[in-house]
Amino acid sequence: MAKLDEITELLTEELEGFRTAITEVKEISKELKSSEVVRDIYTIKRQLSELTEKQDAHFQRNTRESGKLGETMATAKLTPKWLLALFCIASILTAVSLGYFGYHFIQLEDSKADAFKAGKEQVILDLKGYFDEHPEVYKGFQAWSKEQERVPDQK
User: Fold this and answer.
1) In degrees rounded to 5, what are phi and psi of residue 128?
2) Is residue 146 included in any domain, yes or no?
3) Do 119 and 111 contact (CB within 8 A), yes or no?
4) Within-domain flag for 35
5) In terms of Cα–Cα distance, which of 28, 10, 7 is closest to 18?
6) Phi and psi at residue 154, in whole multiples of 5°?
7) pLDDT for 68-80, tens place per residue?
8) What domain range is 91 assigned to?
9) Would residue 31 count as lying in a domain?
10) Could you tell me which residues come within 8 angstroms of residue 85 by beta carbon, excluding any fewer than 6 positions away?
11) Do residues 137 and 130 lie in contact, with contact meaning Cβ atoms separated by under 8 Å?
């Protein structure tokens, strides 16, 4: 029986320790519930939800602005339309003027050749008429011409 008394005493002490621990936990729980920590947690939660709402609004605004910027970038061009039109007109005018002046240059060369032929024929006719009027000059010209044929070209 002595052992049974010891066990009951031991159990009684343990129960007493357990009761005191429970009362301490209750007191601490009351202190925590009534303390400012709980109020601060609610304040932090509220501020956190407000911050989340503000961030969502900010991200939505950024998304809209990015979309508008993307559309603007897609429609933007490096050169304005009037500059492109001016470049086309200048290119066309340059091509036309080059063609015109090229054609006239070729015609000028042809007309020079025709004028040279006509001038040569005219000189020959004039010289023939002159030599017909002055036969002694013609004989001197023939002598000079033969002499020129014998002398090699000294250029």
Assistant:
1) -60, -45
2) yes
3) no
4) no
5) 10
6) -110, 40
7) 988 888 777 777 7
8) 79-155
9) no
10) none
11) yes
Q: Are 46 and 39 in contact (CB under 8 A)?
A: no
* Statement: residue 55 has pLDDT above 90: yes
Q: Which residue pairs, CB below 8 angstroms and at least 24 apart, start in 129-137?
A: none
- The answer to the question of residue 143 being in a domain is yes
Contacts 24+ apart (CB under 8 A), 68-77: none
**pLDDT tens-place string over residues 98-144:** 999 999 888 888 888 889 999 999 988 888 888 888 889 888 888 88
Residue pair 99/106 in contact by the 8 Å Cβ criterion: no
With tokens 């939660």, the residue in question is 45
Give the phi and the psi of residue 21 in degrees, each rounded to 5.
Answer: -65, -40
Counting the structural domains of the chain, the total is 1
Query: Exposed e or buried b for every residue in 111-139, given b needs 16+ CB within 10 A?
Result: eeeeeeeeeeeeeeeeeeeeeeeeeeeee
